[in-house]
Write a structure and sequence with these properties.
Blueprint (H helix, E strand, L loop, with lengths): L1 H11 L2 H9 L10 H12 L3 H9 L8 H25 L3 E2 L5 E3 L2 E2 L8 H14 L15 H13 L5 E5 L7 H18 L2 E5 L3 H7 L3 E5 L2 E6 L1 H6 L4 H6 L6 E9 L5 E5 L3 E7 L5 H24 L36 E6 L4 E3 L5 E10 L3 E8 L2 E8 L9 E6 L4 E5 L5 E9 L1
Parallel strand pairs: 4-5
Antiparallel strand pairs: 1-2, 2-3, 6-7, 8-9, 8-11, 9-10, 10-18, 11-17, 12-16, 13-14, 13-16, 14-15, 17-18
Helix pairs in contact: 1-5, 2-3, 3-4, 6-7
Amino acid sequence: YVKNADKLIKILSKPKEVVQAINECKDKSEVLDTNRALIKLIDLYETSIYTAKEILDYKLQEISNIEEKAKQISEKLKANIESALKKHKDSNCSLNENYEVVRIGKVVKTVRKMNKEEIDLAVRRVSRIVKIGMFMDRYPSELSGGQQQRVAIARTLAPEPSVLFMDEPLSNLDAKLRLEMRSELQRLHIDTGSTFVYVTHDQMEAMTLATKICLIENGVLNQYDRPLDVYNKPNNLFVADFVGNPVINFMDAKGVQLEDGNIALEILKNVKATYTPKEKMDMGNWIKQQEAEEDSKLQSELAKQKDKKNVEKGNKDSHFRYHIAKVDESEILEEDKTISYLDYVIGIRPEFVKISEQGSLTGEVYSAMPTGMETTVKIRIGNFLFTGVVFGGVLYEIGQTVKLDFDGKGVMLFSRKNGKFISQGSLSVE
């Protein structure tokens, strides 16, 4: 406390400078951007986020006589420091220049200790959570890989930390136990109030456990959002392709926006379709915005190239090569160098592929994988393959002729030129 209070007194010795720094973090409407203000104070005074938050809590920028207010706060802090020093003196201790407690010339180090009963209760509590109670009398060499993984999780949870960093903690567990542990970790996250930083390649774990997902490709952050927003509104083709099992269906399209806001498209080489955005949008304005961003990025890159001190990073943005599922993928496609903002990529999640007798497209069942609760079906239309999910115990025969449509308003529209998400909407085939 003494160290923090002393730092605050030094900062408040120049209250006008503090207020000026805070006011610089207001927007045009004079609304304070708290996060920006915290970063500003941390950088300016080389202090911690806790001290920066305390400075903001004083709300000096809202007070007319800031000098008097700062003086009052400083006097109160000095009184608290004197009280703290008196307590140390009464216990034959003092503080050195690093604000460490010193007794008889030696720094006093306090270690948190637990008695045997507390240790036993903590061990048994976490052993029940990860279901290793029956293995408590075994040596590590007598445990399987999955059991050792559960012991590692238990050791992490035992001290009840405020932040946990987990790197694929469930990778060695069998499928049934992995599902149970997901449920336990989700409950623990709520019960403990701890922050979980969870690294995984299993998107099912990410979708079911996370409050927010951070998706990184080649060292570049692509999206940081809530799981369902990542699934339903991916920032680009990479995110859309990475998240979802079964994977999303992609197909190329070309078209123009009509006066009513819909987009007339040509898909599957010669099929006419109409895309209706979920929310009204002007493609002309969207294209202008993208071109302006491209120009700004180009100017920035040119400026960096002129800077001799600039080091080019190897993980810079690269254009994601999305995959369109086909029966015959042996054909080598040449890169189209004439791609413009009138070229699109349609993304359709499997749950929006609807098989019905009233369907506008005709195809045949390429494969069908029933699991009881649902059936994953691959449908062939010409050389193209579409994956659909039919809920319930439905059986399809290989080669069976079916009709399908793209149902719902969750069909995604991406720019083929830069891979960015444009809109959600519905797709009707003529």
